[in-house]
Amino acid sequence: MLSVARKKQIKALLKVLNVEAMDLELFSIALTHPSFNFEINDENAPDYERLEFLGDSVVRLIVSNYLFDKYSDFEEGKLTKLRSYLVSDNFFAKIALNFKLNEYLNIGIHEEKDGGRKKESILACSLEALFGAIYKVCGYEAVKTFIYSIYDNLEIDTDSILNLYNSKEILQQYTQSLHKNLPEYKIISETGKAHNKTYNVVVIYEGRQLGEGQAKTKKEAEKMAALNALKMLNLIEGCNEK
Questions:
Q1: Could you read off the pLDDT of 183-234 as tens digits, one per residue?
Q2: Among 94, 102, 146, 165, who pairs with 117 as Cys (CB 3.0-4.6 Å)?
Q3: What is the structure's pLDDT at 239?
């Protein structure tokens, strides 16, 4: 049961987002970090992780369709690279801040002190969870309209985006040029509590460790491992990671 104050808060956010919905509780869950339930000793209470899982799939489909229609002259490789950037944690975190989602987050005290409201991974996950909530409550067309409005209001510099590089993509292209095999990413350690883990990942190719990376999400740790592998192999110099 949401408090009167929380209901008022969620209603205010939905008004800003121009989203009409009656299920305020699901939107509150979309903005609840696992650390919040952990600190109130109710770890079985729902948080944003399931909705984030759903929202991730929904937004990838919608953004794929958006790019397919808007850039009809772009081949598959360019579309893939644009989508990779436009659904990245870094990009989503900026959008979340534009909507001031950080102000609406339910977050644990310790995570709050650790700067959780400004963490890229938390902001990105909360936005994806929000997409998931809109989809569940309002339907596909509503979340499509919402996501399209976000991208229509952005100035997407395709040339700049296409000049960025993806460390995992470059490493995969390099290894496939050698023996058609793919690099393998392995988590070698996880530290911290469930709501605030740090992942240590290595990337291995044909039994040889090429690089190691550490981050708050598995995805970012893999990217760091690939980046360090590219540096070790002298394959990059003066490039910008996306």
A1: 999 999 999 877 778 999 999 999 999 999 998 888 889 989 998 998 898 8
A2: 102
A3: 47
Catalytic residue among 111, 128, 220, 222: 128
Structural domain boundaries in the chain: 4-158, 167-232
The alpha-helical segments, DSSP class H, found in the chain are: 4-17, 24-30, 34-39, 49-70, 76-86, 89-98, 109-113, 120-138, 140-152, 158-163, 167-179, 218-232
Architecture (CATH level 2) of domain 167-232: 2-Layer Sandwich (3.30)
- Quickly name the fold that domain 4-158 has: Ribonuclease iii, N-terminal Endonuclease Domain; Chain A (1.10.1520)
Please confirm, yes or no, whether 56 is among the known catalytic residues: yes
Do the Cβ atoms of 137 and 26 come closer than 8 Å? yes
Which residue do the tokens 């909530």 mark?
A: 133
Mapped onto helix, strand or coil, the DSSP state of residue 134 is helix
Which of these is catalytic: 25, 39, 49, 56? 56
Q: Catalytic annotation on 155? A: no
